[in-house]
Amino acid sequence: MFRQTQDQSLRPLTTAHLAQTMSLLVLSNQELHDRVITELSSNPALELLDERICPGCHKPLSSAGPCPVCSRQVEGEEPIVFLSPRDSYRPSRKRTLEDQPLDQEPAAPEDLSVYVMRQLAADLKPEDRNVAVYILASLDEDGFLTSPPPYIAQATRSSLPQVMRVIDLIYKADPVGLATDGPRQTLLVQLDQLGEGEEPHCELARQLLRESFSELGRREYDKIALILGISPAAVKEAAAFIHDNLNPYPARAYWGSGRQPQPGDSNVYHTPDVMISRNPSVNDGPLMVEIFSSISGWLRVNPLFRQAMPEANEEQSDEWSEHLEKANLFVKCIQQRNNTMQRLMGLLVSQQSDFILEGARFLIPMTRAQIAGEIGVHESTISRAVANKSVAMPNGRIIPLAKFFDRSLSVRDRIKEIVENESKPLTDDVIASLLQEEGIKIARRTVAKYRAVEGILPARLRGARKLSQAA
Ligand SMILES: [Zn+2]
């Protein structure tokens, strides 16, 4: 046994302690919540008290908000980082106003059907309006039709040509390629909008989509080359062209204000593990960093169970001490996890305050290894702590914690901003040279790649969108 000291983090870790801490560290709060429930139901030595107790110093908390002891500020500009007794910031019936500033709700994405409808308004005949509303309202989350056009005609008491006329208008609105029957047709529609002739890859890309779509999905370039009687290199180039310039899931593309959650964000959208906010009581004060608990209430080793130990008969004794040992270890490992999260967030927030307040362009490039070095832990510890976690930012957006380490983010954000502010669509070449003027050395191909990652369509498709908006 190790000697008891005040600070759990200063004690050397046993192998079991370390292994379990690592396995808990990699979980999101949501996942840890399930894990805690499982432990509670299988171990009578563990108990959850329905009390507001500070997870940091274990003192009872009287009011809502951070623990006055643990959230004491150390230095002027340093963020206030504290462990929270609540398990999330989601609105709940128990919620009070002071508990939950309203502006911390995630920004509601603009409704796609409304956004497209506004573009179509001028082109729609009065009798087509209902049809358009019906189609837009029934698109699935990828932006595809959920029922075939003849069915839509029947449902809206219109004719098939009428339905096809409306669908054709929707095709050309931003984001280009909505209301098709699937990814293949969407890509073909987008290709049509790109215009012919100008792009040498267009014709081959169209042929690939028409004749070898499933092989394309499986990346069987050699097989396609054989079927079409062309070189594998040409097939690869056309496939790269499709990948860089087209988006098979139009509803997930960058459209409108671009504030829609990106793919991959969806699973973290509503339950952040950490919330960063401005201190509401001090103007321009230090940032507040609240690290949520995986479960609200206070998890501890049941003292009654410990007291009852001497009364255990021989048969029970082994089982009971095993329960006790496991409960002890579990509680310690959760504390260790909290401790690591607290130190990690303290360091990240103090170094990246400009990124947090001003946006992605101010992200300072750093690695998990650097942070590990500064905290004095192994890099794999930081990787686990960062994995599966999400952060609610002061503007209400919830982002994966890993974005703090995304080196390409600031450049991608700048590209997004350039596109948002363009008066006419700028080509990747022009964007690359604009970035070079700002000191960012970047190749046209990289611009195309980052643009594709952000779901921004190429200049010529954005041109089509501007035209339909102007109409
Ligand atoms: Zn405290």
Question: What does it look like?
Answer:
This protein has 471 residues and is mainly alpha-helical. It has three domains: 231 residues, no CATH class; 141 residues, Arc Repressor Mutant, subunit A (Orthogonal Bundle), CATH 1.10.10; 63 residues, Arc Repressor Mutant, subunit A, CATH 1.10.10.60. Helices cover 48% and strands 6% of the residues. Helix 5 crosses helix 6, helix 8 crosses helix 11 and helix 10 crosses helix 11. The site of zinc ion (ZN) has 7 residues, from loops.
**Which kinds of small molecule does this entry bind, naming each only once?**
zinc ion
One letter per element, helices H and strands E, the order comes to HHEEHHHHHHHHHEEEHHHHHEEHHHH
Mean pLDDT: 81
Number of domains: 3
Radius of gyration: 28 Å
Shape: elongated
* Structural class designation: mainly alpha
- Based on DSSP secondary structure assignment, what is the total number of beta strands? 7
- The residue ranges in which pLDDT falls below 50 over 5 or more consecutive positions are 1-10, 90-109, 257-269
Described by strand count, sense and barrel closure, the largest sheet is: 5 strands, mixed
Helix percentage:
40-55%
The helix count comes to 20
Oligomeric form: single chain
Quote the beta fraction. 5-15%
Strand order within the widest beta sheet: 2-4-3-6-7
Distance between the termini: 77 Å
